Amino acid sequence: MSGMDVLVVGSGGREHAIAIGLAQSKSVSSIHCLPGNAGTSFIAKNHDISLSNLDAVVNLAEELEISLVVVGPEVPLVDGLADKLRDKSIPCFGPNSEGAMLEGSKLHAKQVMSDLGIPTGRFEVLERTSRIEDIFESFKPPWVIKRDVLAGGKGVIVTSSKPDARSAIKSWIALDGFVIIEEHLAGEEASVLVILDESGYVVLPASQDHKRVGNYDAGPNTGGMGAYAPAPIVTSSVLSRVKEQIIEPMHNHIMKWDFPYRGCLYLGLMIDEEGSPSVVEFNVRLGDPEAQVTIPLIDSDFGILLRSAAEGRISEIDVTFKKMYSSTVVLASEGYPGETILNRPIIGWDSRVDEGQISGFTHIAGASIDKEGQLISSGGRVLSTTGVAPTLEGALSASYQIIEGIELQGSHYRSDIGFRALS
Ligand code: AMP
Ligand code: GLY
């Protein structure tokens, strides 16, 4: 049997990680990326088509007789890319637009959780600025204020300052007509990625992102500055509760839809001191940078895993994981997450670690190749250095060995990735 021709949609570090996972799969014979990035150009054919033109994406998949489309980011899913592909009978890893609303609307996700009795923070919708002072009475600080739009992590503030809370509420009500106020959840965050379809689900090793820009979680939120897996906060007893209280009810719910959810459901969790999990958010895709540390731990054929979910046959396969740890450390451009300075040359990104069971390599995100063949920065998160080893310490040492050798003027990275697991 000839292998699959797979199209990966997206252009970040997550999509590079997906493409590497597919390149290592026996079931895959060719990989195409749309638009891809400098990293994917070494292992796949990149196609320079805009993600906003969904019909062009479908046309390319038809032209290339693609066996599987893997959608990386959330926006094309919310916009209906999976629906359009399925209309043409092209298997797609990623939910239809209805399923994608679990990420597209935080209010919708909250309502689903409330209907199903899934643990999550209490919330209220606020439409009138005249009621702001009531909120300070009914919710304890810090106040969690969210816009109900896809804002790439920028539509949430968590603050104990009343003036900051007032100003966010006022400006977001002016923009959107309402904001969501959420109970603040205390504890440690973890990400659990679940690959699922109507036939079953596979829970990938839990990971932990580092969302703030500075060491020990100082400074503003970012898209994610590093991650590691497996995250020890998700013990087997925590995982049993996550399955029983969150995954099982969501799976039962999803099985009843006209068109079932086929893809990844990302559980953004808060685990409290007693080990009780609550949902902070759902995402409808693999996390970035969580994918970079999760995919390398999958032992089974990654292409078969994604294809089985896309075809509603996940219960037919066995998926096994490596008994290893992984870590990734993000190198960000000067100024990130504020105004960033781009188009600077990057030196030393292609060094690797290969010492027995310890390996290390680079996932490319916001970087492109210029006319002279030089890698240059083109985004806030430029790349991340990933280590895989029998211990977390070994994985981190590979990540840091590579990143310390990379030259990019003005760039910065966190030097404390994994600190919660190591302490
Ligand atoms: P979200 O986009 O909903 O994931 O929120 C971004 C980040 O804000 C989360 O990763 C948390 O660090 C923080 N956050 C959001 N909601 C809450 C909450 N209810 N309690 C505590 N922290 C939260
Ligand atoms: N790492 C956070 C996210 O993918 O949303």
How are the SSEs ordered, and which strands pair?
Layout: E1 4-10, H1 13-23, E2 28-35, E3 45-46, H2 54-63, E4 68-71, H3 74-78, H4 81-87, E5 92-93, H5 97-104, H6 106-116, E6 123-126, H7 132-138, E7 143-146, E8 156-159, H8 162-176, E9 179-182, E10 188-197, E11 200-203, E12 208-209, E13 212-214, E14 218-221, E15 226-229, H9 236-254, E16 263-271, E17 277-283, H10 290-294, H11 302-310, E18 325-332, E19 353-355, E20 358-364, E21 367-369, E22 375-377, E23 381-389, H12 392-404, H13 419-422
Parallel strand pairs: 1-2, 1-4, 2-3, 4-5
Antiparallel strand pairs: 6-9, 7-8, 7-9, 10-11, 10-16, 12-15, 13-14, 15-18, 16-17, 18-23, 19-20, 20-23, 21-22
Helix pairs in contact: 5-6
The structure holds adenosine monophosphate (AMP) and glycine.
Can you walk through the features of this model?
The protein is of the alpha+beta class. Among the domains are: 4-99, Rossmann fold; 123-182, 2-Layer Sandwich (Dna Ligase, domain 1). It is 29% helix and 27% strand. The protein has 13 helices and 23 strands. The strands form 6 sheets. It has a 6-stranded antiparallel sheet. Strands 3-2-1-4-5 form a 5-stranded parallel sheet, with helices on both faces. It has a 4-stranded antiparallel sheet with strand order 6-9-7-8, sandwiched between helices. Strand 10 and strand 11 (200-203) form a beta hairpin. The radius of gyration is 21 Å and the shape is globular. The mean pLDDT is 96. The structure holds adenosine monophosphate and glycine. Residues 209, 224, 283, 287-288, 290 line the site of glycine.
